[in-house]
Design goal:
This protein has 310 residues and is an alpha+beta fold. It folds into two domains: 2-164 and 283-308, no CATH class; 169-276, no CATH class. The chain contains seven helices and 15 strands. It has helices spanning 14-26, 125-142, 169-176, 220-233, 246-252, 273-276, 299-308, and strands at 2-6, 31-34, 39-50, 56-66, 73-76, 81-84, 93-102, 115-117, 146-148, 154-156, 158-162, 179-187, 206-210, 238-244, 262-267. The strands form five sheets. A five-stranded antiparallel β-sheet has the order 2-3-4-7-8, with helices on both faces. The protein starts with a strand and ends with a helix.
Length: 310
């Protein structure tokens, strides 16, 4: 996370800004309707934690509410009976994501801070970044924070927060001139399939395999971003892509070696679909499964995430 200001000036310690953010969360002020007032994003829990190396950090729990999202449903595997959870008046489908913000800059006096964000539906980097930017702007305004400029004068300023993806360079290099080998659109939640299968036949999910010719000079990620709105309009929620890195494609002479193929499964609801291909990720194991929406911290997940930041 990078935090700048306009005009430039010496920022308060991030630990101090973190305390102000906790105040806003505790006062239920960290909520905002976004995207033409259609959705609500909020920070519902926050607290200071310490990494094992002693660095202070701020744990945050984000939620996202979508009143137009499909109702969730469970299916009983032995009988195939479906149990749906219809939304009541005023309800919205909820999602959540944990995040940890290290309060120590990456270099002394710097403006960049490490952030680790749980991978969750509807709460990608773009929305979380916008929410943090909004909250820090509100903090500067409500606390009447002034900055010291390079002349030593105190000036009123507005902060600007930005989250940048830490990339997996291997994936970025492999996809730059890569060749798509397989592209599959997936709808894992069939609400109305449009099919009337015969007795004894069950539809589990809908898939569409595509043949795509990437125009010369266009990269794979650009093509996927171009495809995204159409795929969503057709009711698909995920895209599974396999590609052969450029150097492998040149050496394979058209023969597909499964060991050399790169793969990615992308949620089409993510706004930054291109960067999803390259984001540096880590997997953790928890003994207690998490639901789509958590309203309290999972200490087990926070501990696992904090261990990754040491």
């Amino acid at each position: 996370m990078t935090i700048d200001s306009s005009p430039p000036g010496r920022l308060p310690p991030m630990a101090e800004l973190g305390d102000y953010l906790i105040e806003r969360v505790d006062a239920d002020l960290a909520r905002k309707f976004v995207e033409r007032e259609k959705f609500e994003i909020a920070i519902v829990r926050s607290r200071k934690i310490a990494l094992s190396n002693g660095d202070p950090a701020l744990a945050l729990l984000f939620t996202f509410a979508d009143p137009d999202a499909p109702d969730p449903a469970n299916i009983h595997l032995p009988t195939r009976r479906v149990r749906r959870f219809d939304k009541e008046e005023g309800e919205a489908r909820g999602y959540s994501a944990h995040a940890i913000l290290c309060l120590t800059p990456t270099e002394y006096g710097g403006r960049r801070f490490r952030v680790l964000l749980e991978s969750a539906e509807r709460l990608g980097k773009s929305r979380v970044s916008q929410m943090l930017d909004y909250q820090f702007r509100a903090i500067f305004q409500s606390k009447e924070i002034v900055l010291e400029n390079d002349k030593g004068d105190e000036v009123a300023a507005k902060p600007k927060v930005r989250l940048d993806t830490v990339t997996n360079d291997r994936l970025r290099d492999s996809v730059s001139g890569g060749v798509i080998k397989s592209l599959k659109l997936i709808d894992p939640i069939l609400e109305q399939s449009g099919f009337d299968p015969p007795e004894g036949v069950r539809i589990r999910r809908r898939e569409m395999f595509l043949k795509v010719d990437v125009p010369p000079g266009q990269q794979v990620q650009s093509m996927l971003k171009h495809l995204q709105p159409w795929a969503r309009s057709q009711g698909f929620r995920e895209i599974y892509v396999e590609w052969l890195p450029e150097h492998e494609a040149a050496a394979s002479a058209g023969k597909l070696n499964a060991r050399n193929v790169e793969r990615a499964k992308i949620d089409l609801a993510q706004r930054d679909i291109g960067e999803t291909l390259f984001a540096k990720k880590a997997f953790v194991s928890v003994t207690r499964p998490l639901t789509d929406l958590s309203t309290e911290f999972s200490d087990e997940l926070l501990d696992a995430m904090a261990a990754l930041m040491e």
